Automatic annotation (TrEMBL):
GO molecular function: ATP binding; ATP hydrolysis activity
Domain ABC transporter, chain residue ranges per copy: 5-233
Keyword tags: ATP-binding, Nucleotide-binding, Transport
Organism in which the protein naturally occurs: Holdemania filiformis
Family to which the UniProt record says this protein belongs: Belongs to the ABC transporter superfamily.
Name of this chain's protein: ATP-binding cassette domain-containing protein
Length: 302
């Protein structure tokens, strides 16, 4: 697999606090990589490091195969766009003035792609309105438009959904998916698990500065095994029949929980034959949230 970013045992310490602790991660090219962690887990520190805003104390990372200590990293970094904490926009300028300023900073013609980018980001009707009067969602989109000025292959978004209303969230989600479909690899940090689960193709779970698990959406789906909840007249008998068919199961009050999301028609048949009719049947999905809480030990501050 081709990776846009690989990181090996990277550590970062703030005085006596170990913010990143031998963190290893791999972001495949073309992915939407969801970096999930609770407040203080180290997400922003990690992102600031990747964006070149601070140096690691130990370990290394490679962007597009180039090690962070290699002088060629500057050229690779130019193909990376990042919005860390708040979008870097000029509040006393309009959307188009912001994009023009960004072009000039990059040594490009002032109006290069400005109209196209404003349209693409849904900001083409904002005219002379100053960015300070934009909604949070519009500012977020302007930040992304500005980050796109360098035609990045890799876009890094730190908590992009924070504070957005449902419309702003939906618009941003659509934008992220469309940028990804055009080939851009995107790293998104968030504690909004539900939001990430609608987007991410890969996940990294960070806790106490360490990446505790990294997996693809398909792998996560398999891990977030579903199951069935059966309401039966005789739970004990139901468990005996299910175990004979090698199902992992347990009693939950008057119901029986059957592990696994597959076809259970054979079990239903055997239950009927055994004189244990099923009164109700519900399919259950384990959410990303419960998976995450299990992973970090049940603390609910994601
Ligand atoms: P959040 O979701 O709250 O933004 P985070 O996962 O992004 O959290 P970081 O901002 O990376 O976490 O912070 C990780 C830890 O490092 C926190 O405990 C934070 O207090 C600490 N920290 C961050 N920056 C500094 C700094 N400049 N000096 C000292 N400690 C810091």
């Amino acid at each position: 697999m081709d990776f846009i970013l690989t990181m090996h045992e990277l550590s970062k310490r703030y005085r006596h606090f170990q913010a990143l602790d031998k963190l290893t991660m791999h972001i495949p090219k073309g992915s939407i990589y969801g970096l999930i962690g609770r407040n203080g887990a180290g997400k922003t520190t990690l992102i600031r490091t990747i964006a070149g805003l601070q140096r690691p104390d130990e370990g290394f990372y490679c962007l597009n195969g180039v090690k962070h200590t290699d002088p060629r990293i500057a050229a690779v970094r130019r193909k990376t766009g990042a919005i860390v904490e708040t979008p870097a926009i000029y509040l006393d300028m309009s959307a188009s003035e912001n994009l023009q300023a960004q072009n000039l900073l990059l040594g490009k013609p002032k109006n290069d792609q400005v109209e196209r980018r404003l349209k693409r980001l849904g900001l083409d009707q904002t005219g002379t309105k100053k960015a300070r009067n934009f909604s949070l969602g519009m500012r977020q989109r302007l930040g992304i438009a500005s980050a796109l000025a360098s035609d990045p292959e890799f876009l890094i978004l730190d908590e992009p959904f924070n504070g957005l209303d449902p419309q702003g969230t939906a618009d941003l989600r659509q934008l992220i998916v469309s940028l990804n479909q055009q080939g851009m690899t995107i790293l998104i940090s968030s504690h909004l698990l539900d939001e990430l689960s609608r987007l991410a193709t890969h996940y990294g779970f960070i806790d106490h500065g360490t990446l505790i698990q990294e997996l693809s959406a398909e792998e996560l789906q398999k891990q977030c095994r579903g199951g069935w909840r059966l309401t039966v007249t005789n739970p004990q008998l139901c468990i005996q029949v299910a175990q004979r068919l090698h199902y992992a199961c347990e009693q939950a009050e008057n119901d029986v929980l059957i592990d696994g999301g597959g076809n259970i028609s054979e079990l239903l048949l055997k239950l009927a034959e055994a004189g244990c009719p099923v009164q109700a049947l519900h399919q259950q999905d384990e959410s990303l949230e419960s998976y995450y809480l299990d992973l970090i030990g049940g603390d609910k501050h994601a």
